[in-house]
Structure formats: C-alpha cells, structure tokens
Amino acid sequence: MLQYTNYKEHPDLWAKRLDISKEAVDLYLDSEIIDPHTVSYVWTRVLGYDMNKRHSYKPLKAGFLSQVDFPRCLEANMSGMVWDITTNPLRTAKKKLEITQNK
After folding, report:
1. Where are the domains of the chain?
2. Is-contact 26 10, C-beta < 8 A?
3. Bridge partner residues of 38 (DSSP)
4. β-bridge pairing 34-38 and 80-83
5. pLDDT tens across 39-49, in order?
6. Distance between CA atoms of 75 and 11, rounded to whole angstroms?
7. Residue partners of 52: CB distance under 8 A and separation at least 6
8. Can you tell me the distance from the alpha carbon of 95 to that of 87, in angstroms, rounded to the nearest whole number?
9. Is the pTM of this model over 0.85?
10. Per-residue pLDDT reduced to its tens digit, 27-64
C-alpha cells in the first residue's frame, strides 16, 4: 500500500505546507495536471529506483535527479503522464530491430 496524503481531502493542510493561499490550492485541484516527460522507469531498470517509495524533491538531496514516484504523483493529484521509453543510443538501428524482434 502506498503511503501518501490525499490533499484533495485536505486542501487547507496543503496550502499551509506550501505557504500559499487555499484559493491557489483550490485552483490547482480544479486543474488537469500532466507530466509531459517521465523517465523514471529508466532509473528503475538501470539503478533500482523504487517508484513506490517517496523520494525527496529537494534539488540537493533528491536521488535520481528528483524523478517522479507514485506517492508524490498521488499527492499532486496528477491526471496523466507521458512515459518515455529510452533505448540504448549506442546501438545501431539494425541491432535495435534485431533485439526487438527476438524478444
């Protein structure tokens, strides 16, 4: 079970934690929030990044350059994401096709 705070049920708490007005939080919660560039699965595959675990969002303390994790997605009340699938840039196009067809 993911541990997170449902700020939709507690907008006052979120406004206080962010030091912003409740009206700003209400406007945010009425909006569709989409992350147009998510590559967290690269770090999951390469370095074992656990997307079920909350990671720091502080730039100097954030592991994996502050990639998205599921608890923060839920807290941010995100509506959608674009998941990027990265391939090995050093592999030739022919080799990529061969590997894809053999899987």
Report:
1. 11-86
2. no
3. 83
4. parallel
5. 777 777 767 77
6. 11
7. 2, 69, 70, 71
8. 11
9. no
10. 999 999 998 888 777 777 767 778 888 877 665 655 55
**CA separation for the pair 97, 103 (Å, rounded):** 10
Positive or negative: CA dihedral 12, 23, 56, 9:
positive
Quickly list DSSP for 58-101.
-TTT-GGGT---HHHHHHTT--EEEE-----TTS-HHHHHHHHH
The answer to whether 35 and 82 are in contact (CB under 8 A) is yes
Is residue 52 within 8 A of residue 3, CB to CB? The reply is: no
Which residue would you say has higher pLDDT here, 96 or 22?
A: 22
Quick check: helix, strand or coil at residue 35?
A: strand
